[in-house]
Amino acid sequence: IPEDISVVGYDDITYATAISPELTTIAQPITSLGKTAFTLLLKQIETPQNTPCEVILEPTLVERESCRRIDTNQNVNP
């Protein structure tokens, strides 16, 4: 890794930087997730007849050592 295969994790756990090579990962906006959930819960308690809503929180790509750019110009021998 990453010469033969690239690896990407999810959640950006603490161990992502404790291993070698460090794990490229997708980080969720944990603080925004908690605040949004709390706000929606309070809104639902105050107005129970509220219709469900959809909230999209953007994750972030945290680039580390477990991935590399693939050279698409390489000749591949069968």
Give the secondary structure arrangement, pairings included:
Layout: E1 8-10, E2 24-27, H1 30-46, E3 60-62
Parallel strand pairs: 1-2
Antiparallel strand pairs: 2-3
Number of helices: 1
Distance between the termini: 22 Å
Shape: elongated
Low-pLDDT stretches: none
State the secondary-structure class: alpha+beta
Instruction: Assess the beta-strand content as a share of residues.
Output: 5-15%
Cα Rg: 20 Å
Strand count, sense and barrel status of the largest sheet are: 3 strands, mixed
Sheet with the most strands: spatial strand order: 1-2-3
What is the N-to-C succession of helices and strands?
Answer: EEHE
Share of helical residues: 10-25%
What is the average of the pLDDT values? 90
- The beta-strand count equals 3
